[in-house]
Amino acid sequence: MQDLDPHTLQPAHSGRPTATPWAAVRGRQVLDLAQPMRRGMPQSPNHPPFRMALERRHGDMMRPDGGSAANELIVTGGHVGTHVDALAHVSQDGRLHGGRQAAGLQSHQGFSDLGIDTFPPYLGRAVVLDVAQVHGVDVLPAGYEITPDDLAAAADGIELAPGETILVGTGWSRRWHEHDAFIGGRDGTPGPGEAAARWLAAHQPVAVGGETIAFEHIPAGRGHAVLPAHRVLLVEHGVHIVETMNLDPLLRTGARELLLVLNPLPIVGATGAPVRPLAVLA
What we know:
Strand content: 15-25%
Order of helices and strands: HEEEEEEEHEHEHEHEHEHEEE
Helix content: 10-25%
Number of domains: 1
CATH architecture: 3-Layer(bba) Sandwich
Shape: globular
Distance between the termini: 36 Å
Mean pLDDT: 93
Oligomer: single chain
Radius of gyration: 21 Å
Number of strands: 15
């Protein structure tokens, strides 16, 4: 067995650089891109709501030495708050990504494949396409459909490499505290339309992320009646979707690329799971 330098974890006297992964990120700014999870937060009406109750309070049970513990009961849907969509989340004509029959993979225990537990933790480069900035506004109008031209303008001068992550900025997370407006039931929400989804998929990202509940364009008065971008990304191209991200602190920095940590809860067979994305800035 080759001896390792205890400080660098590199082979001793290997002549390789001595920088460590943790040294590379030491002192860097880290941004939390998750919305806080609490009862009553904005969410899709298609999913069960988030609930948390303090099941046991301090003093309910006392240890002989006077110690006490409190704990809670949490009930949540997999697509509530900031979360990642698994490839099992959407089917088209009964088929999931890769043409697989949904009926053959699903049961009361979830999915035997393509569930969120098959999503490997992501640690890598992410590119920010701030479409709101392209239009010179802090927040795109409700119901605005992002086009391929919008994305191309936001990507001007920056490389989009396969196997990475693309974040689409609409400014919508700045409306998080406007419950009904954020959901967009009446006026809709901004996001990529079907053509923009195909533009994103053509760059072969592992995942795309956005600030709204559905990621994609929701027209005024339509609700989540049809979701063509989900079909394009999840079913046709196998691209995961991260929804309800809090991109506001990231957009404020003007950063166009970052190191992203994306690690949803590995709930076996689930169609989605909460995530706390972390952005490490250069």
